[in-house]
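Human: Here is a favour to ask of a fellow structure person. Comparing notes only helps if you start from a blank page. I am asking you to supply a protein in sequence and C-alpha cell form. Write it directly below this note and I will take it from there.

Assistant:
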Amino acid sequence: MLKGINKQIIEIKCTDNECFDKILLFVNADKSHLHPDILRKNAVDIASMITGDRMFSTNRKFSPAALVLTIMGAAMLVLLLIALCM
C-alpha cells in the first residue's frame, strides 16, 4: 500500500553494491495481471541495466536461433579468411 493506492512492488536486494541496498520497482496497474515470472524477468533485466551487474541475468534460456546465427557467422568468417589467403 502506497499513499492509499494499492500497488504491487518488486524489491530487489543489491547486497553486492556498495552504494545501494535495494531497488524498488512499482508495477504499472495495467500490467499487474501479468504472470509473476514475466514481472520477475523484467525486474531482473532492469536491475542488471541499473547496476551493470550480470549476476541478475544468470537464468537465460537457450536460443536455437542464436546458435544457428552464431554458426553461420563463424562459417562466413572462415570462408572470408580462406578467400583472403588465396
About this structure: The chain has a mean pLDDT of 77. The beta strands are 9-13, 22-26. The chain is about 45% helix and 10% strand.
